């Protein structure tokens, strides 16, 4: 009997001791991040049968339970992913707002207005070389500001790619740490309370980068950790590797991929979320928005000014030359197309109508003999080619080498325009202040008539024959200057040193008139250029050049405001999830202090049981 009592007492002492140890462990880790409160679950020992009766045999420890709720933890993981994504998007938008508020960006509309004002001043004295030099200098400032802003935004895209590399590297490290935890758990039996705390911490950190799903493996072989929409990062005791690979077809638009054996499987950016998703959103949506819209400003400005230059005469009496690089140069037209490295196709994109020009990215896919085009708004259309050209949204796409079946490429009409714009002259005399007449008022067809160079003959008419298959050049009195030629001409036409172009599309008997005699002090062409400041030449006649920039600022401000509101909401959701976790898993020091006293008393009482058993045993021995 004494031995039974001693056994009951010793088990009770051990149980109380474990309760004290666990309580002390809780108190010690009250401020440890990620720690979950532990509690000893004790149960009644199996009773002993004697004399037809059942006698209790004390207590034993069943397990040490971790205060944890999988639904609360999953809710926190989701909230963590959502908050990390929203906060990073807000931060990146704030960075872009700072870019548009930088000195170089603020000076873009200021310098555009200053340039137009200098044109207005020159219009008062069009032959003043000093005033002409001011126009040239102001134009150089506009191009420099556009170049600087484009470069600043481009560098931010590079910085986001660097952050992507760092994020993926950390995700791989987390995967290895989780794998090592799984291996340690398999080597040591029993509940792994502290290891599971560390496991949850790593999962939560991983949740900041991407959405995470954790599932149990069969036979207690750890867990599967999946990222995004089901890509396995950790499978039990094995970890996969994430890589950042070149984009397709744009190699600079780097993307995620999972190494699977000897192969690599690309991961869609739509599958990611979290910080990585925010980086991809900013790099692939917000940065291009800045580049495209400021590129629209640059392309529209240079296109319109160069076009008006060709409609006037410079200080030497010649047709005005471009002040800025040609938006339709061969290099610029080719740079608008993004195709895979191994493509055999060749498409070249020219801007024909600046008023219809959009920013953003078009995708062109060739399928079953048709060109499927998706515009920046996501609207798809099948574009029927006219000869070897596609026409849409003010663009003319020359198909010089056809696309393969199923091939897809991208068109970015304005992405590089702000970086490409440059001055092509520093000579003040090249400004075409004086206007001349190259009229199509007596033509009913769609042909374009353009003066390229001024020679000795400055007044003439181009007349299309009644049959519409020939044209001739006469002076204003009807005298033949150039006998009938085949229409349309194969290239430029020269008459007395004056060069002009006449495209196809004229109707029979159409007449085109040219008067290249400039008047002293004439400023007609400068007035046309000056009107660009207020004319709504963009968005199908809805927006001015400078209005494009202000619209960009407004759009960014709205996006930043919306991102801030979404971040605040996500923050509150995350805080609520953390509070639920704290209520379930957190250590209450007042409660633990009370438990310490309770288990201390139990320990002391159990010691008395052992003492009583010892005294009883000694008494029995003394009876002998």
UniProtKB/TrEMBL annotation:
- The protein's gene is named flgK
* Residue ranges annotated for the Flagellar basal-body/hook protein C-terminal domain, each copy included: 584-623
What's the short name of a Pfam family annotated to this entry? Answer: Flg_bb_rod
InterPro entries linked to this entry:
Flag_bb_rod_N, Flg_bb/hook_C_dom, FlgK, FlgK_helical
Q: Where is the Flagellar hook-associated protein FlgK helical domain?
A: 94-324
- Report the sequence similarity comment from the record: Belongs to the flagella basal body rod proteins family.
Might you name a Gene Ontology BP term for this protein?
A: bacterial-type flagellum assembly
| Organism superkingdom | Bacteria
Coiled-coil residues: none
Q: Which residues form the Flagellar basal body rod protein N-terminal domain?
A: 15-35
Q: Where in the cell is it found?
A: Bacterial flagellum; Secreted
Q: Which UniProt keywords apply?
A: Bacterial flagellum, Cell projection, Cilium, Flagellum, Secreted
Residues of the signal peptide: none
Q: What is this protein called?
A: Flagellar hook-associated protein 1
Q: Which GO MF terms are attached to this record?
A: structural molecule activity
Q: A GO CC term?
A: bacterial-type flagellum hook
